[in-house]
Amino acid sequence: MLFSKRENILRNEVAIAVVIGGLNTSLGYVDRKGRCLARATIPTNAHQPAELFFERLYAAAKTLLDTICEKCDIVGIGLSAPNANYYTGTIDYPPNLSWEYVDVFAEINRFYHLPIAITNNANAVALGEKLFGIAQGMKNFIVITLGAGIGSGIVANGEVIYGEDGNAGELGHTIVDLHGRECGCGRRGCLETYASDIGICRTVQELMCDTNEPSDLRFVSSEDLTLRIIYEAALRGDRLALKAFEYTGNILGLKLADSVAHLSPEAVIFYGGSAMAEDLLFRPTKQSLEEHLFGVFKNKVKLMASGLSEETGAIIGAGALIWNDLQKERYMDKSHQHRKILSE
Amino acid sequence: MLFSKRENILRNEVAIAVVIGGLNTSLGYVDRKGRCLARATIPTNAHQPAELFFERLYAAAKTLLDTICEKCDIVGIGLSAPNANYYTGTIDYPPNLSWEYVDVFAEINRFYHLPIAITNNANAVALGEKLFGIAQGMKNFIVITLGAGIGSGIVANGEVIYGEDGNAGELGHTIVDLHGRECGCGRRGCLETYASDIGICRTVQELMCDTNEPSDLRFVSSEDLTLRIIYEAALRGDRLALKAFEYTGNILGLKLADSVAHLSPEAVIFYGGSAMAEDLLFRPTKQSLEEHLFGVFKNKVKLMASGLSEETGAIIGAGALIWNDLQKERYMDKSHQHRKILSE
């Protein structure tokens, strides 16, 4: 009886999940099974001071809570944002946001006195995969988020690797070619300049210049070119588009071989953006990875598409930040109680 | 009274530490403070069956134990060897050893019924640095062992990263140049072919071919050339030798920038071989690392020389394998006892 009552209480526990993006911010309520019960979007408006943003966020979260039928207990707030730091609870010089420095813990504490956990999007998605997605039960894996940029979240020994300063997992800024493409980070040849959505567009430009391959893509301006257009051309058999995916997969596989040499993960999981390109990108990436792997790692590492939906994956990841912390606490608690019972 | 008695018992606890090398095997007794109380060397003779080796090892360990004045309790056996796997307790196709597969746990269990822990040399040294060396108190660091090859041991969140299969931390086999130097592993352009002792010798050969730089090293045959000879030439101001260290440091720094992007360590610690080259290699490595680091990591990562002596470091690392496991167990035990007392 007590048990079912407890179950009943658990069912209504939710985490507020917030995903801050350059233009828009998504928020939602994520329950302990990783279901997003309700979600909404507000403009980020990062040209305004951050405190205004958190006021609007609080108002939106309150309104959204009313749309959920069941009565909910909020157990914490998980937030992902560019350059959000798990250790310090701050956002420092976020790219694409004009805030210089935001003390997220302090801002949220104005409205809630609840556990707060923050990190960048890729780490949050990694936790989402671990708790609710395709990495359930895995202890060692890497999530690569493909989109306008490339993010990555590393899980080793069952824990997200934040590193000494909270910034571990910047695989998008490992170097492919010292003299290669200019990167937004000020250096040259970062993986991101080749394997992000924009990187693939740049590759199409390069192939149009280097080859005489006829292609529909030659009729699209550089500004108008998108991954979706390249993807659709490839599906029609456009050889230049196909080559662009081959080229990207080669580079991605080569750099992932280095990542595997560091971490020996069970799987590399792709989330978002060109993960939609499925076999077009997966096949050459897998082939290149196997070709370039150090012998002992060959034919071991799974390449997988995310187990989270592209619509709600980031939200669920942000929620997972809180659920992961609570799981650890409850585990400690349980083992404490268990020991207490044993010693009584 | 009870406490001092306990202390007294602890003082005599030792781990047997074994370091299997291609030619020779070192063994020693390492106490809980990381002191090597006695050590010896036996030929590995890997052309003979592994069981003969373990019989000789047991005999040598027994003889060596008698040389220690105090009475000792052996708490476990820590062993490092090429391709030794922490998870499986086996050595699989070790390079430079003709054994194909050795079940180390089974072999040692013939003589001792004690905890056994095995791993490769670089991981053992990483634990040695963490428990007894320069990484005491660090939670995130990388050890690079420089020698005939390049090994690495990664510690993140305070734990050695073994990865899914026990083989994580193969930084020597990350790729510098796809079309570069032939590596013993069958691929081309691995870091090891540039930054190991032999790699630096190869660089001298390359510089002798590519430049007209006069150098004493031109009078040394390729077979006779060693890192020590290059080091001594560099100390005399030999420009070709100096260039070889610059070149090596550039490449090492570049690849370490990738490692930092993965792991954001507090420090990268060099052990053995060319770590002796100190400033000759450190300065260009540090410079190249800082030059190639992603912005957020700049001026944060320490490059350090090992805190373990080159003579006994590997032995102490092998011993640390056992002491680290026991520390974890004792910690669990302590917290158990503490809780028991609290709940009584």
Notes on the structure:
The structure is a homodimer of 344-residue chains. With 344 residues, chain A is an alpha/beta fold. Helices cover 42% and strands 19% of the residues of chain A. Chain A has helices at 2-11, 50-66, 104-109, 121-132, 192-195, 197-210, 227-235, 239-263, 278-292, 313-343, and strands at residues 13-20, 24-31, 36-43, 73-80, 90-92, 101-103, 116-119, 141-146, 150-156, 159-160, 267-271, 302-305. In chain A, strand 8 and strand 9 form a beta hairpin. In chain A, helix 4 (121-132) crosses helix 10 and helix 8 (239-263) crosses helix 9. The radius of gyration of chain A is 22 Å and the shape is globular. Chains A and B meet through helix 8 and helix 10 of A and helix 8 and helix 10 of B.
Decide which structural class fits the backbone of chain A. alpha/beta
Q: Give the strand order of the largest sheet of chain A, numbering strands 1, 2, ... along the chain.
A: 3-2-1-4-7
Largest sheet data of chain A: 5 strands, mixed
Measured as a percent range, the helix fraction of chain A is 40-55%
DSSP helical segment count of chain A: 10
Provide mean pLDDT of chain A, rounded.
91
Q: Return residue spans of chain A where pLDDT drops below 50 for at least 5 consecutive residues.
A: 1-8, 339-344
Assembly type of the chains comes to homodimer
What would you call the shape of chain A? globular
N→C terminal distance of chain A: 24 Å
Proportion of residues in extended strands of chain A: 15-25%
Main interface: chain pair and counts: A-B, 47 and 47 residues
Number of strands of chain A: 12
**What's the Cα radius of gyration of chain A?**
22 Å
What's the SSE pattern of chain A?
A: HEEEHEEEHEHEEEHHHHEHEH
